[in-house]
Design brief:
448 residues; mainly beta; 6-stranded antiparallel β-sheet; 5 helices
């Protein structure tokens, strides 16, 4: 029996014995304290409530909600993150300005959207957690080329400027699509790059809670529709649900922007999107809600069911009700809430998502975790690997790219990973805080 199932059945026994959610909280707490004492203070049960296929989330406010901001140091020229055994890391490009998202074109060109959060009046410690330097969002798109295939870009050029916090990009036939925070645009795609004036296809609801300004886009499996991810405008609907229209959703539109509909809803902040190569189903990486405790609510990756509802803001991880909606819960929606496929840790800010796309990389999902700010200890700040078999996640998450945390004792980090993408031969990871793009490739990789 796996540790997830073992803990699940133990939790069910607690509920039966105690007969209440209070009993669940106290039983789980005792179990964890006993485990920590038996393991020299190491909390090995953290994965059973935050990571994996079958979790039982920690009870709300079992731990106080706290903030811990990281100061970004940047990387020295001799430094780099650490990849899993069998892989090595080189700098694809550096000296950038908030490289946020990556799109690899069919011809191998690498497009990068540079954009950042724009929020006035923030505390200095939160501003320092965003980047090694302070500037307004540059709001452009770069094109890189790696002509000799060594994982280091030889050419860089700006191909679009004067955007409004761009994030998502895609190419389909003669069109280059860009998702601004407030609109879906497209440009003519000629000679390997966008050209001419932008055509606005649809307006999108702009702004949002913390980093919920990102709008990602993805072609469906047969390239007939475009998925558009739109995060919530609040933490848990505290401003009124009338302000959340078309938000906390994955929308679907035709290639010309018509026929918009909600493909799936109740998804607090879906950022990373990818088509799973075996089932051809849409998957997304989702940032869950804040202020319920250190280990609640876990971010997750999940397949996205058409017309599915994933709980926000009324419930989380399936049918667990959010206490802030007590006495106001629409019970039918709570009952319809879908349990996500795989938990990837509370407050990890899991933004990037890609499935293995280059030789030598294990089959599964690679998740870029930007890192926590509202937790008593750092969580995330790495790329994790979730093994898959036959289109489904199996087993425990594994660290794939680490070393971003410099010294947690003084709250310093070198950088913060965001997007993950694959060329035909290696992985790319953006580090928007340190203004670097990293290449991860097989250690015995031979250059073309």
């Amino acid at each position: 029996m796996s540790m997830y199932k073992r803990y699940f059945y133990q939790k069910v026994w607690c509920v039966v014995l105690a007969g209440s959610l209070l009993g669940l909280a106290s039983c789980g707490h005792t179990r964890r304290e006993q485990n920590k004492r038996a393991n020299g203070g190491v909390d090995s049960l953290v994965h059973e409530i935050e990571y994996g296929l079958q979790i039982v989330p920690q009870s709300p406010l079992a731990t106080p909600s706290q903030n811990k901001f990281a100061k970004v140091l940047g990387w020295k020229s001799t430094q780099s993150p650490t990849a899993a055994k069998g892989f090595k890391v080189v700098r694809f490009a550096d000296s950038l300005n908030s490289p946020r998202n990556i799109y690899v074109a069919p011809n191998g060109d690498v497009f990068v959207a540079q954009s950042r959060t724009e929020k006035k009046g923030e505390k200095e410690e939160k501003v320092d957690a965003r980047n090694t330097f302070r500037s307004e969002s540059i709001n452009n798109i770069l094109r890189f080329s790696d002509e000799n295939g060594d994982g280091i870009a030889e050419k860089k050029e700006v191909v679009i400027e004067d955007l409004e916090q761009p994030y998502g990009m895609l190419i389909h036939k003669d069109w280059f699509y860009v998702a601004n925070t407030n609109a879906l645009l497209r440009y003519r795609y000629r000679d390997g790059k966008p050209s001419g004036e932008a055509e606005k296809l649809i307006d999108l609801p702009a702004g949002g809670y913390n980093n919920h300004w990102t709008r990602n886009i993805m072609l469906n499996a047969d390239s007939t529709k475009i998925f558009v991810s739109v995060g919530s405008g609040s933490n848990v609907g505290e401003n009124g649900m009338e302000h959340e229209r078309r938000r906390a959703n994955i929308l679907e539109v035709s290639l010309d922007g018509t026929e918009e509909r909600v493909f799936a809803s109740g998804i607090r902040n879906p950022v990373g999107m990818a088509i799973e190569p075996n089932t051809l189903s849409l998957w997304t990486a989702v940032n869950e809600r804040d202020e319920l405790g250190d280990e609640l609510v876990p971010d997750y990756i999940t397949s996205v069911k058409e017309n599915g509802f994933y709980g926000w803001p009324y419930a989380y991880w399936g049918h667990f009700p959010d206490p802030r909606w007590k006495n106001r819960l629409p019970q039918t929606l709570v009952e319809q809430s879908i349990t996500p496929d795989y938990a990837v840790g509370a407050h990890t800010a899991s933004l990037g998502l890609a499935f293995n796309g280059a030789p030598g990389f294990p089959e599964g999902a690679y998740v870029g975790q930007h890192g926590s700010w509202n937790r008593s200890t750092f969580s995330g700040y790495k790329v994790v690997f979730v093994p898959f078999e036959k289109g489904r996640p199996v087993g425990e998450p594994q660290d794939f790219l680490t070393g971003f945390i410099a010294d947690e004792r003084v709250s310093t980090v070198y950088g913060r990973p965001v997007a993950v993408a694959f060329t035909k031969t290696y992985m790319l990871v953006t580090d928007d805080a340190a203004n670097v793009i990293w290449t991860v490739k097989v250690e015995d990789y031979k250059e073309r």
